[in-house]
């Protein structure tokens, strides 16, 4: 019976989120940061782990560095990487989680701080989108297993448990940040290798050391917005146009090119865009922001282009580093 209800719930969620994706079709951002840089490896770690901490998918970092995905990096290695990204500025204080990116963006009083990797809900148990608030925070939490997960345990022939005390077997790890979305929060994990994948029951798992950094900075009552935005476009104050595309992790019905065309038309940018570059970006879906401004005449006429009505001035945290580009 539960399988049938889960199927119906998935259909409802899919329709709901698809509608929200369509409603976001007019989003044009303005903050592009990160960039090409030289990274010095300071301690032994895997290429995959480094990718997560940089906000990149492992295959993207492997492609940039020409190293295999299972490479173990050694102190002293120097890597050339590109972390250019468009910041989703739906809010300027709190957290924004973009599910296709598998990333959470942190803002504090109008200043973008940094981004962290997350694991999100699996396809048949998707993380919900919407605007929520941080309801509670707990260190060394006890996991009160939701009835739906208890039913899943029973169906899979596993031992059904109602509570899991703090410790190495607790899937919540050492930190829990609860949201007003039912049974959904950010938490540490005893399975750090799952971060960067769609594998949870709706919650967002974080790397243990990264949530340890974020936890004390998050206040109860702060807003948290969860979006589904696989394509992001930005028009910077300098008049440059950027595009960033990510895999459609939940396989919703989205036409990437139509999305970009509609956004470009809304802001009268069609003639300023290098459309062959757009095709390449949408094909690769590497999650790195690339400039698509048609050169050279576009720069001369940038001041004539309309600006987004909701253009919000955001600062850049010192945590971004001195070499970070901001546009």
Strand ordering within the main sheet: 17-15-14-11-18-7-8-9-22
Number of helices: 8
Helix content: 10-25%
Low-confidence stretches: 1-25, 302-311
Mean pLDDT: 85
Q: How big a fraction of the residues is strand? A: 25-35%
Global morphology: globular
The CATH class of the largest domain is Mainly Beta
Largest sheet: 9 strands, mixed
How far apart are the termini?
Answer: 53 Å
Using only C-alpha atoms, the radius of gyration works out to: 20 Å
Structural class: alpha+beta
CATH architecture title of the largest domain: Beta Barrel
- Count the E strands: 23
Q: How many domains, as an integer?
A: 3
- The third-level CATH topology of the largest domain is L,D-transpeptidase catalytic domain-like
Give the name of the CATH superfamily of the largest domain. Answer: L,D-transpeptidase catalytic domain-like
How would you portray this structure in words?
This protein is of the alpha+beta class and 327 residues long. It folds into three domains: 1-35 and 233-327, no CATH class; 36-83, Membrane-bound Lytic Murein Transglycosylase D, Chain A (Roll), CATH 3.10.350; 89-227, L,D-transpeptidase catalytic domain-like, CATH 2.40.440. It has helices at 2-23, 47-54, 58-65, 147-155, 208-214, 256-266, 275-284, 297-300, and strands spanning 32-34, 36-40, 45-46, 72-73, 78-82, 85-86, 94-98, 103-108, 111-117, 120-121, 130-139, 143-144, 163-164, 175-179, 185-187, 198-200, 204-205, 223-227, 231-235, 241-245, 290-291, 315-316, 325-326. It has a nine-stranded mixed sheet. A three-stranded antiparallel sheet has the order 6-1-23, with no helix packed on it. A hairpin with a 5-residue loop joins strand 14 and strand 15. Helix 2 (47-54) crosses helix 3. The N and C termini lie far apart (53 Å).
């Amino acid at each position: 019976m539960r399988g049938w209800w889960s199927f119906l719930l998935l259909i409802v969620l899919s329709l709901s989120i698809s509608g929200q994706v369509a409603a976001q079709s007019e989003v044009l951002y303005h903050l592009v940061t990160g960039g090409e840089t030289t990274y010095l490896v300071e301690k032994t770690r895997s290429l995959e782990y480094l990718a997560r901490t940089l906000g990149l998918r492992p295959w993207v970092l492997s492609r940039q560095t020409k190293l295999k995905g299972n490479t173990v990096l050694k102190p002293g290695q120097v890597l050339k990487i590109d972390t250019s990204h468009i910041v989703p500025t739906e809010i300027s204080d709190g957290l924004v989680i973009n599910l296709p990116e598998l990333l959470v963006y942190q803002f504090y009083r109008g200043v973008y701080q940094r981004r962290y990797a997350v694991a999100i809900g699996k396809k048949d148990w998707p993380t919900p989108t919407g605007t929520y608030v941080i309801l509670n925070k707990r260190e060394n939490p006890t996991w009160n297993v939701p009835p739906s997960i208890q039913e899943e345990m029973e169906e899979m022939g596993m031992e059904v448990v109602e509570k899991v005390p703090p410790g190495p077997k607790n899937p919540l790890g050492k930190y829990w940040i609860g949201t007003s979305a039912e049974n959904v929060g950010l938490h540490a994990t005893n399975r750090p290798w799952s971060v960067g994948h769609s594998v949870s029951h709706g919650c967002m798992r974080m790397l243990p050391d990264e949530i340890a950094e974020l936890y004390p900075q998050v206040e109860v009552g702060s807003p948290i917005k969860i979006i589904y935005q696989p394509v992001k476009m930005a028009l910077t104050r300098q008049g440059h146009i950027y595009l960033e595309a990510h895999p459609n992790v939940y396989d919703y019905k989205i036409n990437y090119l139509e999305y970009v065309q509609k956004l470009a038309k809304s802001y009268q940018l069609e003639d300023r865009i290098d459309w062959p570059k757009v095709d390449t970006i949408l094909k690769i879906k590497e999650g790195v922001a690339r400039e698509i401004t048609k050169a050279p005449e576009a720069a001369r006429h940038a001041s004539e282009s309309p600006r987004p009505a909701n253009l919000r001035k955001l600062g850049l945290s010192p945590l971004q580093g001195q070499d970070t580009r901001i546009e």
